[in-house]
């Protein structure tokens, strides 16, 4: 069972998810020192950017769904 879980995690690239999220947040204009700030401390605009980042991290395939 442990091997199956490991294979699933490897296929999801869980190890690189945080790095991907940080890269996306920086691209959305977050200052580096704000990346580790609690979500509750962010203004509505920054929270909206977080929501956008969540969608970008998940890499949804909307093109395939529109066809």
Give me some keywords for this one:
67 residues, mainly alpha, 4 helices, elongated
Layout of helices and strands, plus pairs?
Elements: H1 2-12, H2 17-27, H3 44-58, H4 62-66
Helix pairs in contact: 2-3
Provide an overview of this structure.
- The protein is an all-alpha fold and about 70 residues long.
- The chain has one domain (about 15-65).
- The protein is about 65% helix and about 0% strand.
- The chain is built from 4 helices and no strands.
- The protein has helices at about 1-10, 15-25, 45-60, 60-65.
- Helix 2 packs across helix 3.
- The chain is elongated.
- The N and C termini lie far apart (about 40 Å).
- The model has no long low-confidence stretch (mean pLDDT about 80).
Q: Can you give me a brief rundown of this structure?
A:
The chain is 63% helix and 0% strand. The chain has four helices and no strands.
Low-confidence stretches: none
Using DSSP, what is the number of strands?
0
Q: Give the integer mean of the pLDDT values.
A: 81
Oligomer: single chain
Total DSSP helices: 4
